[in-house]
Write a structure and sequence with these properties.
By secondary structure, the protein is mostly helical. It is flat. The chain has one domain. The protein is built from five helices and no strands. The relative contact order is 0.16. Helix 1 packs across helix 3, helix 3 packs across helix 4 and helix 4 packs antiparallel against helix 5.
């Protein structure tokens, strides 16, 4: 049961929360999505609506994760953060340790990087709804300027830790590095 809780929490932070941030931003430019998120009356909240938003959040989170892979992973790799060369023949009795490294490092990397992507999307959507980038500055501008570098730094640190520790655990002939 404990393992399920950790895994479920990891999936929640890796996909559902960034997906909800994406939906929130989409709600700025789509009245339909804003209604899904409770932008209508309080009476509109239903169990079906909750499930719909949850499934939509997972889909949006997976989409943000794809953009994360395309942009953030590439940026980290091109700026010196190299993935280890895994020797999966060494996995055997190390599966639990590898799973733990995924849950305590990689899922947090996914949260930080996916939320960075979702936040950037939501920021642009909010800016469009506020009249574009020529409109007056607001608290959302400050929030994005502060949070984006924090999420980027957090993503880089947690990915580095994941690469180092999982690389040691499953080091190939090259000692864990390409």
């Amino acid at each position: 049961m404990k393992d399920e809780s950790i895994t479920n929490f990891g999936l929640l932070i890796a996909y559902v929360l960034p997906g909800f941030v994406t939906l929130f931003g989409l709600g700025e430019v789509s009245p339909a999505v804003k209604t899904w998120l409770g932008g209508g009356s309080v009476d509109s909240a239903t169990l079906g609506g909750f499930l719909y938003v949850t499934v939509a959040s997972v889909a949006a989170g997976l989409t943000a994760s794809t953009f994360r892979w395309l942009v953030i992973d590439t940026l980290h790799h091109r700026t010196g953060l190299r993935p280890p060369k895994f020797d999966f023949s060494r996995l055997g009795d190390r599966v639990e340790a590898f799973d733990l490294l995924i849950e305590i490092h990689y899922r947090y990397y996914q949260f930080y990087a996916n939320t960075l992507v979702a936040g950037a999307f939501s920021y642009v959507a909010w800016r469009i709804s506020a009249g574009g980038f020529a409109a007056a500055l607001a608290w959302c501008d400050l929030a994005f300027v502060v949070l984006a570098p924090v999420f980027f730094a957090g993503s880089r640190d947690t990915l580095r830790r994941y690469y180092e520790r999982s690389g040691h655990l499953l080091a190939g002939a090259g000692g864990g590095r390409d």
